[in-house]
């Protein structure tokens, strides 16, 4: 038996074995590559001049039809989605469907854009070129939305918008702030000045009417008709009482008269009446049965009328909502006019100078009307950007001081001492 290798000799033997295996692999690779590199291009590449047997032009008609059926089956929507599409098509018209598809595509593009931004978020480089900081356009399409439009018979566009659209249910309106009117300036235009004066006069007239209504008494006293009724003659009332008594006695006499007794019916007459009642009942049952059959046959018409009624109700509801949004006042505009409708007594006067004050006066000597700071604070309070001013009469008056709790026994003893004293 040979001696086992150990230590440095074993490591040297392993290195030699690994080098030998590597040399064998390199030699095998070199031989394989030489077989390809030594050949010409004509031997390596072949041009197909006959064409493929599976070409679509050479296929039989039945095979083409089967391939087309498979494509249609793949593109066909599931049953649940098909029912939802049918429901949408029945409820909405083509314009509403196009709007829904457009919003869905825009929302899908926005969601994808947001996800991509989170994954690949890059900091804006202030010193980079303009082209580096431009946002890349995102291409996206919604096949499901296109299927809905195609099913409804609506043509869809070839390309969708390439930029990201922000779709919001409610349009964002710019914040409006009341500025000084042209008629409130120094030596204003006559027409603008007259318009401002009319606004100021309307505020004062509204305040005057509210004050008069507040000072007016709650009741205006007893009317002449009521006074005459309460303070009428006693003789006429006695005559009325006598007439009422006479009427009551006549009614009692008429009630005492006995009703006339009917003659007794014979058996034949009773049977005849019974047959008539049975025929009438059978006719009534037949009429109800025919009415029920007619109502069952008219179910499709009722369904159409119901759908039409629901659609009209929805359109009317949307129109009312749009009218309310349009009639909603803009916050920060016409603050004094709106406040005068709520509380005409407390609303401040519209700051406008009289014609005599600035007719011959210079800009230095004229006294300014109103305050810019007050106007801005009123506008901020109207837009709910700051707390509104509370007047002393609006605040609830509470008892001041610390609340002291008195036990029941002590309170009872105090009451007893007070009685004894």
Automatic annotation (TrEMBL):
Main location per the UniProt record: nucleus
Name of the molecule in the record: Ribosome biogenesis protein NOP53
Location of this chain's protein in the cell: Nucleus, Nucleolus; Nucleus, Nucleoplasm
Function, as annotated: May play a role in ribosome biogenesis.
GO MF annotation: an example: 5S rRNA binding
Annotated family: Belongs to the NOP53 family.
GO biological process: ribosomal large subunit assembly; rRNA processing
UniProtKB keywords: Nucleus, Ribosome biogenesis
Positions with biased composition (Acidic residues): 235-250
Signal peptide: none
Organism, scientific name: Seminavis robusta
Compositionally biased spans, kind Basic and acidic residues: 266-287, 312-327
Bias-annotated ranges (Basic residues): 1-17, 397-406
InterPro entries listed in its UniProt record: Nop53/GLTSCR2
């Amino acid at each position: 038996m040979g001696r086992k290798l150990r230590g440095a000799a074993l490591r040297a033997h392993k290195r030699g074995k690994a080098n030998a295996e590597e040399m064998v692999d390199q030699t095998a690779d070199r031989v394989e590559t030489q077989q390809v590199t030594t050949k010409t291009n004509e031997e390596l590449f072949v041009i197909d001049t006959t064409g493929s047997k599976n070409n679509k032009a050479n296929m039989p008609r039945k095979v083409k039809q089967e391939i087309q059926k498979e494509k249609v089956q793949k593109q066909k929507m599931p049953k649940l989605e098909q029912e939802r599409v049918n429901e949408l098509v029945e409820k909405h018209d083509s314009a509403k469907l196009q709007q829904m598809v457009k919003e869905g595509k825009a929302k899908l593009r926005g969601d994808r854009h947001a996800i991509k931004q989170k994954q690949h978020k890059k900091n804006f480089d202030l010193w980079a070129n303009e082209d580096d900081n431009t946002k890349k356009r995102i291409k996206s399409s919604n096949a499901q939305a296109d299927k809905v439009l195609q099913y409804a018979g609506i043509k869809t566009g070839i390309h969708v918008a390439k930029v990201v659209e922000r779709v919001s249910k409610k349009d964002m309106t710019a914040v409006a702030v009341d500025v000084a009117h042209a008629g409130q300036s120094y030596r204003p235009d006559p027409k603008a000045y007259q318009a401002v004066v009319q606004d100021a006069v309307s505020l004062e007239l509204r305040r005057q009417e509210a004050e008069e209504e507040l000072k007016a008494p709650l009741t205006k006293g007893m009317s002449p008709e009521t006074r005459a009724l309460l303070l009428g003659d006693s003789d006429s009332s006695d005559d009325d009482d006598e007439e009422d008594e006479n009427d009551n006695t006549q009614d009692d006499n008429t009630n005492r008269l006995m009703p006339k007794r009917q003659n007794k019916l014979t058996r034949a007459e009773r049977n005849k009446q019974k047959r008539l009642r049975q025929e009438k009942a059978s006719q009534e049952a037949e009429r109800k049965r025919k009415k029920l059959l007619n109502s069952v046959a008219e179910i499709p018409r009722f369904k159409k009328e119901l759908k039409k009624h629901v659609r009209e109700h929805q359109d009317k509801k949307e129109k009312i909502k749009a009218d309310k949004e349009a009639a909603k006042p803009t916050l920060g505009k016409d603050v004094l006019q709106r406040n005068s409708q709520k509380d005409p007594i407390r609303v401040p006067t519209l700051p406008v100078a009289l014609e005599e004050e600035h007719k011959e006066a210079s800009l230095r000597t004229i006294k300014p009307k109103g305050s810019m700071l007050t106007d801005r604070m009123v506008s901020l309070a109207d837009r709910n950007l700051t707390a509104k001013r509370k007047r002393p009469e609006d605040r609830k008056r509470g008892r001041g001081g610390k609340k002291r709790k008195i036990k029941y026994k002590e309170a009872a003893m105090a009451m007893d001492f007070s009685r004894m004293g």
